[in-house]
Protein: Acyl-coenzyme A thioesterase THEM4
Amino acid sequence: MARSLDRLYKGFRNLVSLSAMWSMKHPIYSVSSRSPSVRSMAVLPFSFSKPWDFSLPNPSWGPEMMQLYEHYNSMCEVETEGEEKQESSWKRLPGYNRLLKYATGGVYLSKMIQSKARLFTRNIREPGAGFEYVLFVNIKEQKCVCILQAGHLLEGPPGHVHGGAIATMIDTVTGCLASLSGAAMTANLNINYRSPIPLGSTVVMESFLDKKEGRKMFVSCKVTSPDGTKLHTEATALFLSINLNHLMGR
Ligand SMILES: CCCCC/C=C\C/C=C\C/C=C\C/C=C\CCCC(=O)SCCNC(=O)CCNC(=O)[C@H](O)C(C)(C)COP(=O)(O)OP(=O)(O)OC[C@H]1O[C@@H](n2cnc3c(N)ncnc32)[C@H](O)[C@@H]1OP(=O)(O)O
Structure:
């Protein structure tokens, strides 16, 4: 299990693009300058070996988002049992912007599309405007939790989050769980919208692996208010593990 988490981490790191880092003019970190080269140096808060991790707190995160982040993040710390230190089974997953490894391998993608490809849920640059989220996984319990703060660009019904945006995040959380032991694709996603999610609010998305049958993974997901009293959305999904080479047409 620890090995599969390692693999997942490496996968996430490998998925990051250099160009995504350059193109990410994150307003909070921008220092304006007339010279592009100077601006590049001033804008980037990290070196090339360290891509920007979107799942760390930024000033757009509200108190509920921060509180939940701190709660789950504290569970990721090393546990001590008597004298012995044990690695926690909770891990925060870093969140990057671009799935470079697969995009560049895609035989169907033109060079232009490859260079512009971005991870759907991370491609709104203004902090707090789109999907602000962080994923935590518990390998032992085969569980994934996402804390989501839904921004103003995700409006569907007036003042509330678009059902497609909710579906996107459910696909992301369940997909993350299904991909813990290797690449998997959504074959089927069933969603019941129980109560609308107000724009700007924070919700907790919990996903569980219900059953595994060969390549098939049956996953469920529940979206609730931070205190768990209000059920917003319920979903079930079927994922099939895939061979990425097949996806890339190799
Ligand atoms: C995109 C890949 C990402 C990989 C990332 C990997 C690692 C990164 C790490 C972490 C990732 C973190 C987060 C993930 C974030 C987001 C996740 C997004 C996921 C997506 O957003 S992904 C896009 C939408 N997704 C598609 O675009 C799929 C289109 N589709 C296909 O590509 C094929 O359709 C496929 C591959 C699904 C199956 O094709 P196939 O040829 O491999 O399998 P086949 O058809 O033979 O079915 C075998 C058995 O499954 C049963 N079966 C099949 N489909 C069924 C269905 N719908 N309902 C009920 N049963 C079904 C059959 O009935 C048979 O059952 P039986 O064996 O019992 O007869």
